[in-house]
Design goal:
- About 75% of the residues lie in helices and about 0% in strands.
- The protein has 3 helices and no strands.
- By secondary structure, it is mainly α.
- The chain is elongated and about 70 Å long.
- The relative contact order is 0.05.
- The longest helix is centred in the middle third of the chain and has 24 residues.
- It has one domain.
- The N and C termini lie far apart (about 70 Å).
C-alpha cells in the first residue's frame, strides 16, 4: 500500500472540491438542510412567542386529558 504525503493546504483543497462536487451533483442535500434549518427557526420563534411565563398546573392538564 502506497502512502501519500500531502500538505494541509492540499488536504483543504481536496475537501473543498469534494464538498462542492457533492452539492453540485446532489443539490437536494443542501436544499433539505436549509429547509430543515428554516423550519427549526420557525418552531423556535413560535415557542418564544407563545412563552408568556404563565404556567398551568400539571394536574389540571392531566384531568382535561383524561375527561
Amino acid at each position: 500500500m502506497d502512502t501519500h504525503n500531502i500538505t494541509k493546504n492540499e488536504l483543504k483543497e481536496l475537501i473543498k472540491e469534494a464538498i462542492i462536487s457533492t452539492f453540485t451533483e446532489r443539490s437536494d442535500i443542501l436544499e433539505k438542510a436549509v429547509s430543515e434549518a428554516i423550519l427549526d427557526m420557525k418552531l423556535a420563534l413560535a415557542i418564544e412567542e407563545g412563552d408568556t411565563g404563565e404556567y398551568i398546573d400539571e394536574n389540571l392538564i392531566m384531568s382535561k386529558l383524561t375527561d
